[in-house]
Design a protein that fits this description.
The protein is mostly helical. The protein has one domain. The chain contains 19 helices and no strands. Helix 2 crosses helix 4, helix 7 crosses helix 9 and helix 12 packs across helix 13.
Length: 482
């Protein structure tokens, strides 16, 4: 435990750097592919990806989380979990292939058959690397994981762009999604140098299976709640509309998703080691939560304020209709940035059943919102979705924190300063926008708007709001070797 702080800080910064690079690469890939392919190509892949994403909730069966969260674990247990993951991955691949004709009939789109069949292979590939990746996370080897994730992402991007240039259309997206996890799995096997043994019985994994099952069910419910609108839009409004909505959702969600993965992965691993030390657990959680919100809040507000230029720069003129959806979805992503980190606290401290109950309330709330907005098209769905999430924000926070070491006041203090700084910085950037509207280059406009906003934001946060000491403490943690 003595070097946990330094190891956590180093891992966190490595993960942040990796996710920043991941963000840049994802945006780059999206920009290039949006110009090489049509909205309908993205819509076709999204029709399948929504379903395969649902099945993917079962790939790990929550067993990677169980491996990380468990206070102590042995080789026999990990080996048995590996083979369970492989069995589940094989069953999911078979289920995916069975689903192919169903999707063809549901969407009345024959091209979905072979897209689904090819994407089925991804389940076996992913399952093979679940426990190896979990071992690296358990050991806080996030520098290694960051290198692996970047290499595999670059491979997927190279294959995707190459196939798109060669005029393979939507197949460029399909193959890219298979190549990336395949490279990642090969790398984690090589780095861990761990060979799973034979599966065993009666080795004390029942509690881990129960833990993993609860986490999986929770993830499944949340996934359905947050993605079923794409199924509905594809079914009733077609592939073109779904392509626009799907790219708008992906583009605005990338920053928050990347930051949550970067900070959350490290924080969860650290909190799991501190689950019996409430004082240090509270300190670590609030620092991770503050850092996450200080980055996600201004980013989301920037996206909402300058949606037109962002869509024009990122996707190109033929995607202009996505700008309104992009802006209407921004409150939803803002709420995600505030509530998603509470899952670190619940799962790391063994409160996964509470997280499941919360998911069971969120699901009908947002699905009802989709139903209300669906007759009005993608903009109606986006507006209803964001309205439901804004109404849910306070009840969610209060429910998550009840009976834990964290109080609502702690959360208010952690979010208040970055929120106020972001609001002021956004207002100044919007005011400055009037002087930049005459500029013909959207790249230049966006660069000036973003530059002003983030300079003002960090000046407000560090000096006016007094957060300079907090960040200096993070960097001082780098001085001592791990």
């Amino acid at each position: 435990m003595r070097d946990l702080k330094q190891k956590t800080i180093r891992s966190g910064l490595a993960k942040l750097f990796g996710q920043a690079l991941n963000f840049i690469l994802r945006i780059f890939f999206l920009i290039i592919m949006a110009r090489l392919l049509d909205p309908k190509d993205f819509g076709l892949v999204t029709m399948v990806a929504v379903v395969t994403g649902l099945y993917a909730m079962f790939t790990t069966a929550g067993l990677s989380t169980a491996t990380i969260q468990k206070a102590s674990i042995n080789d026999e247990q990990i080996s048995t979990l590996f083979w369970i993951n492989m069995l589940i991955g094989t069953l999911l691949a078979c289920l995916c292939m069975i689903t192919a004709p169903v999707l063809v009939t549901f969407y009345n789109e024959p091209r979905l058959f072979w897209i689904t069949m090819i994407m089925a292979a991804g389940f076996i590939v992913n399952a093979a690397g679940v426990q190896h990746s979990a071992l690296l996370q358990r050991q806080l080897r996030f520098v290694t994981l960051t290198v692996i994730e970047t290499l595999s992402q670059l491979a997927g991007i190279a294959v995707g762009i190459g196939m798109a240039v060669a005029d393979f259309g939507y197949w460029a997206l399909v193959v890219s999604t298979i190549v990336q996890p395949a490279i990642g799995t090969v790398c984690v096997w090589a780095v861990t140098a761990w060979i799973p043994g034979s599966p065993r019985r009666n080795i004390g994994i029942r509690s881990m299976l129960r833990f993993g099952g609860t986490v999986t069910l929770n993830n499944l419910i949340v996934y359905v709640a947050y993605n079923i609108e794409k199924v509905l839009l594809g079914r009733f409004w077609g592939a073109d509309v779904l392509g626009l909505y799907g790219r708008a959702y992906q583009l605005i969600n990338i920053p928050t998703q990347n930051l949550n993965l970067a900070i959350g992965g490290v924080t969860f691993a650290a909190l799991s080691r501190l689950q019996n030390d409430p004082v240090r657990l509270r300190s670590y959680f609030l620092k991770g939560y503050s850092l996450a919100n200080s980055l996600t809040l201004p980013t989301t507000m920037f996206c909402a304020s300058f949606a037109d230029d962002i869509i024009l720069v990122a996707l190109g003129p033929k995607w202009a209709d996505a700008a309104t959806m992009f802006r209407l979805l921004s409150p939803t992503v803002l709420v995600f940035g505030i509530i998603n980190p509470t899952a670190w606290l619940l799962v790391s401290t063994g409160l996964q059943e509470r997280s499941l109950k919360i998911a069971l309330v969120i699901a009908p709330l947002v699905i009802a919102a989709y139903a209300i907005g669906l007759p009005f098209g993608p903009n109606g769905v986006a507006f209803a979705y964001s309205t439901a999430m804004m109404l849910w924000l306070v009840p969610h926070i209060l429910w998550c924190l009840h009976g834990t070491a964290i109080s609502p006041r702690d959360i208010l203090l952690a979010t208040g300063k970055p929120l106020m700084s972001a609001v002021i910085a956004t207002a100044i950037a919007i005011a400055a926008q009037f002087y930049f509207n005459q500029l013909h280059s959207p790249f230049l406009r966006l660069g000036l708007e973003g530059g002003i906003m983030f300079v003002v934001y960090f000046w407000m946060l560090l000096f006016i709001m007094g957060q300079k000491t907090f960040y200096l403490d993070l960097f001082r943690g780098l001085r001592n070797p791990v």
